[in-house]
Amino acid sequence: AVKGTLYFLQGAYLDRADTGGLNAIYLSIDGCYNIANWGLSGYECFTNTPGNTFCRGPIFLPGTFIIEQIIDAVAAAVSVAPEDVRFTNLYKPGDTALCGQKLVDSNINKCWDLVLSKCDFNTRVAEAAAFNEKNAFLKRGVALVPGKYIMNGCQNYPAFVEILEDGAVLIQHSGCEIGQGIHTKAIQTAALELGVDPLLVQCSATSSRMSPSACVTEGSTTSEAICASTILCCQELARRIKPVRDKMPKPDAPWREVVAACYAQGVDLHAWEVYNGTQKEPGVLPDGQNNGPAPYVGYGAAAVECQVDVLTGETQILRCDLVQDTGLSLNPAIDVGQIQGAFVMGLGYLLTEEFVWDFSGDISGGRGNQLANGTWEYKPMSSLDIPVTFNVTLLPKSPNSHGVLGSKAVGEPPLILSVAAVAAVRKALQAYRAGQDGKDKSAFVDLPAPCTVARV
């Protein structure tokens, strides 16, 4: 059972929602664990600091951090390895999560087992223990943490596809390309659906002229939503092209000849469509199965090995082995990059990036002013802070029957796996404490986030 009170630092005003983020914490605070009894209460805290806004993985990273802290505390209390406590309580396929989501296609155990084998976890734990025996002030910790991410619905993002007279295909869609590869995935989807060379397909810049009421680009599912709408456009165009193609002398006529024939006969070769969550195209679009508040769930697991200098508090991530369930990835190269970026962003959130507020006004002369407003005080991740060895594996043979072309979103789910770094730091500190006279060797090391140099 879990019982407690949550306090949500919202700031001086609310952003986006009437109750900030506390009303959605139930989506993430159970993590990957089937815990039967919950008793939580919470408060939105009104302070004199600026209001907080949603960023990558809102609610899910704090919720995952909380439950993993609890798991580590339980493990210390019963003198059991945290990984044993985690594995014993993992959700199984068919279980129902705290938020009411039925985990019909749960891949938690698959991700867990694959990470164990990929990183040779037990051997690395033994090697870390041997290292700790030989070093007084440099300590290592190895931790394995699973992740569960309840996804947003991917709908209400229109797309417009037109086939030009020279056979080129132009896509205009309502998502914003911000480095997540949405254009590339849309181009690949259109090329696949129309059966043309991807080099013939291009995306134009996003404009509100095409769809001023489209959803904002958020929640990791915009890319697959755009792909779904693009598929619908291409399917409509294919229906219009088919009668012309069927009457051509050559059944395998080149694409440009087919397009020229369509133009000659006045066939309309532009289509505007929007996937709204109701269309069902088996094997292409989500199957419409209702399993709870989300169309599907993303899973993953990460094993992290860190080294901590207990004299300075400096932490270095030596290695990370991460497995992410992306279904049938729409583009593995893009998805691996998103996974790496999300994980490193989470490292910054949990290890180095600390907001410091002048609540009294004595330091800055203004109550609620932020003191960490530059890189001298605020430390984002840099090139030397990323894991020395960073292995990413996409879970194989795991098509998502509720996702576009069998895929899963990947922008935010890997972010929560960075919590494994905190668990690894905790193990390193516990190893140091175990060698100190008069210290309770099994005591839980309470680490607030971010685990900055000063706090460590």
Describe this structure in words.
With 456 residues, the chain is of the alpha/beta class. The chain has nine helices and twelve strands. It has helices spanning 60-78, 82-88, 108-119, 121-134, 182-194, 222-246, 255-264, 332-352, 419-434; strands at 2-11, 38-46, 138-150, 159-163, 169-173, 201-203, 270-273, 297-309, 315-324, 357-358, 369-370, 389-394. A four-stranded mixed β-sheet has the order 3-8-9-12, sandwiched between helices. A hairpin with a 5-residue loop joins strand 8 (297-309) and strand 9 (315-324). Helix 1 packs across helix 2 (82-88). The chain is elongated, with a radius of gyration of 25 Å. The mean pLDDT is 90.
Main features:
9 helices, 456 residues
The whole-angstrom Rg is 25 Å
Number of helices: 9
**Proportion of residues in helical segments:** 25-40%
How many angstroms separate the termini? 29 Å
Largest sheet: 4 strands, mixed
Strand-residue proportion: 15-25%
Q: Would you identify the regions where 5 or more consecutive residues have pLDDT less than 50?
A: none
Spatial sequence of strands, sheet with the most strands = 3-8-9-12
Q: What is the H/E order?
A: EEHHHHEEEHEHHEEEHEEEH
The average pLDDT value, as a whole number, equals 90
Structural class: alpha/beta
Task: Give the CA-based shape.
Answer: elongated
**How many strands in all?**
12
